[in-house]
C-alpha cells in the first residue's frame, strides 16, 4: 500500500448514489508537499510552458506544481466563472454533464493538465480538447488518483502520470 492511501477517505454515495468519492482533504492536510513532489515526477518540465489546473482541486494541486517548477498557471473553470472572452467544452461525466471554460489565448504554448482524480475520463478529455482549441498543446497530464478500472487512458497511450492507481 502506498503511504498516501491511509490519508484518503472513501465517501460512499457522494455526490450521487453509486459514486465512491475519494476525499483527499486529509491527505492534503497531512502530506501536501510530498503530494506535490510526487505529482511533479514523470513530467518532462523542459517541454512545459504552463500548468493548467482543472476546477476545483486541480487549482490547489496545479498552482503548487507551477510554483514548484517555475511555470505559469492557467485556471480552467466551470461555466460562467471566468470573464470573457472564453472558449468552452461541454462533456459527459459519470454523474451528468458539465462545461469547462478557459480564457481565450492569444499565444500558443505547451501545458500539463492537473486534476485530482481520473475516473471515466470525461473531464480530462474535455480539458485536453479545450486546450487544443485554445492553441495550447497538452504535453502531459498529472493526477493524484487514476481509477484505471473506469477508463482506458493507458491503453490509448495518452500521456498520463498518476501517483495512485486503482
Verbal overview:
By secondary structure, the protein is an alpha/beta fold. It is built from three helices and nine strands, in the order E-E-H-E-H-E-E-E-E-H-E-E. It has a seven-stranded mixed sheet with strand order 5-6-4-3-7-8-9, sandwiched between helices. A two-stranded antiparallel ribbon has the order 1-2.
Strand order of the largest sheet: 5-6-4-3-7-8-9
What general outline do the C-alpha atoms trace? globular
**Topology pattern, helix = H, strand = E:** EEHEHEEEEHEE
Biggest sheet architecture: 7 strands, mixed
**Secondary structure: number of strands:** 9
Q: Distance between the terminal alpha carbons, to the nearest Å? A: 11 Å
Helical percentage: 10-25%
Name the average pLDDT.
94
Uncertain runs with pLDDT below 50, 5 residues or more?
Answer: none
- In terms of structural class, how would the helical and strand content be classed? alpha/beta
Number of helices: 3
The radius of gyration computed from the alpha-carbon positions, rounded to a whole number of angstroms, is: 15 Å
Q: What is the beta-strand fraction?
A: 35-45%
Task: Please describe the structure with a list of short key phrases separated by commas or semicolons.
single chain; 166 residues; alpha/beta; 7-stranded mixed beta sheet; two-stranded antiparallel sheet; 9 strands; 38% strand; globular
How is this structure best summarized?
The protein is built from three helices and nine strands; from the N terminus they run E-E-H-E-H-E-E-E-E-H-E-E. It has helices spanning 25-40, 57-69, 122-133; strands at 9-12, 20-23, 50-54, 72-78, 86-93, 96-103, 109-118, 136-146, 160-165.
Amino acid at each position: 500500500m502506498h503511504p498516501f492511501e491511509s490519508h484518503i477517505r472513501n465517501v460512499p454515495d457522494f455526490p450521487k448514489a453509486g459514486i465512491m468519492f475519494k476525499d483527499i482533504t486529509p491527505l492534503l492536510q497531512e502530506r501536501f508537499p510530498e503530494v506535490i513532489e510526487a505529482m511533479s515526477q514523470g513530467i518532462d518540465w523542459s517541454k512545459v510552458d504552463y500548468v493548467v489546473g482543472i476546477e476545483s482541486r486541480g487549482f490547489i494541486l496545479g498552482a503548487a506544481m507551477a510554483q514548484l517548477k517555475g511555470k505559469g498557471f492557467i485556471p480552467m473553470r466551470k461555466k460562467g466563472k471566468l470573464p470573457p472572452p472564453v472558449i468552452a467544452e461541454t462533456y459527459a461525466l459519470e454523474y451528468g454533464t458539465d462545461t469547462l471554460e478557459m480564457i481565450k489565448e492569444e499565444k500558443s504554448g505547451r501545458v500539463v493538465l492537473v486534476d485530482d482524480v481520473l475516473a471515466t475520463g470525461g473531464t480530462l478529455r474535455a480539458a485536453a480538447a479545450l486546450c487544443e482549441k485554445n492553441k495550447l498543446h497538452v504535453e502531459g497530464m498529472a493526477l493524484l488518483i487514476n481509477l484505471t478500472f473506469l477508463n482506458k487512458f493507458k491503453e490509448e497511450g495518452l500521456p498520463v502520470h498518476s501517483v495512485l492507481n486503482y
